[in-house]
Design a protein that fits this description.
Largest sheet: none
CATH architecture of the largest domain: Orthogonal Bundle
Cofactor: Ca(2+); heme b
Order of helices and strands: HHHHHHH
Structural class: mainly alpha
GO molecular function: heme binding; lactoperoxidase activity; metal ion binding
Distance between the termini: 18 Å
Disulfide bonds: 31-110, 64-69
Number of domains: 2
Bound molecules: 2-acetamido-2-deoxy-beta-D-glucopyranose
CATH class of the largest domain: Mainly Alpha
CATH topology of the largest domain: Peroxidase, domain 1
Domain Plant heme peroxidase family profile: 21-189
Number of strands: 0
Binding site for substrate: 157
Radius of gyration: 16 Å
Number of helices: 7
């Protein structure tokens, strides 16, 4: 199970990111304590509500499955645009507040530096570890997207898909059926 988790996070974090521009030490000079700030804030929140761990992995997944891991799931709707967040597919997405709190803390320490997409990716990583999963390192440097449209969420796997349709859909994103089953565990919370 642990290996499986590592595998699909590696794949998931490769989602349309391109390898360019990303690095393990992306914030080394601009925000050296980013990892511990994320982790400490997250751990506090998870101590209050441990079930949020799965919620954050799920949110990261919803973010990545649509146009890559670009933080677009966090964008609020406006008068002119209904964002991904307000799709029926979001229905049970949870953990927005933790991400907002972490972002706020980071803005105090290193204003305008850390992308929300990276915060979500790091929070999901730390949530996996908190929940008893493996620890894994992720490259950082994701840029936040500005596109967040409700219609894009129709690319998420719908609940009425049968197994073969799901396997095909996840396969198109580089996931094996095993990855899919492991990932689906987070979708039940
Ligand atoms: C998710 O979508 C529903 C309806 O589609 C909306 O009412 C709700 O506010 C959204 N949730 C969040 C956290 O934005
Ligand atoms: C799954 O659904 C597709 C499309 O409706 C259908 O062609 C296929 O036979 C179904 N597979 C199974 C195993 O039910």
């Amino acid at each position: 199970m642990a290996n499986l988790l590592i595998l699909f996070f590696v794949i998931m974090n490769g989602f349309k990111l391109g390898v360019y521009g990303l690095s393990m030490n992306y914030y080394l000079f601009s925000c050296p304590f980013v990892d511990s700030i994320v982790k400490n804030n997250l751990n506090t929140a998870l101590q209050d509500d441990p079930t949020l761990a799965a919620g954050l992995v799920r949110m990261h997944f919803h973010d990545c499955f649509i146009e890559g891991c670009d933080g677009s799931v966090l964008i609020d709707s406006t008068k002119e645009n209904t964002a991904e967040k307000d799709s029926p597919a979001n229905l049970s997405l949870r953990g927005y507040k933790v991400i907002d709190d972490i972002k706020q803390e980071l803005e105090k320490q290193c204003p305008g530096v850390v992308s929300c997409a990276d915060i979500l990716a790091m929070a999901a990583r730390d949530a996996v570890f908190f929940a008893g999963g493996p620890i894994y390192n992720i490259p950082k440097g994701r840029k936040d997207g500005t596109r967040s449209k409700i219609e894009d969420t129709f690319n998420l796997p719908p609940p009425f898909f049968n197994a073969s349709q799901l396997i095909r859909m996840f396969g198109q994103h580089g996931f094996s059926p095993k990855d899919m089953v492991a990932l689906s565990g987070n979708n039940c919370v």
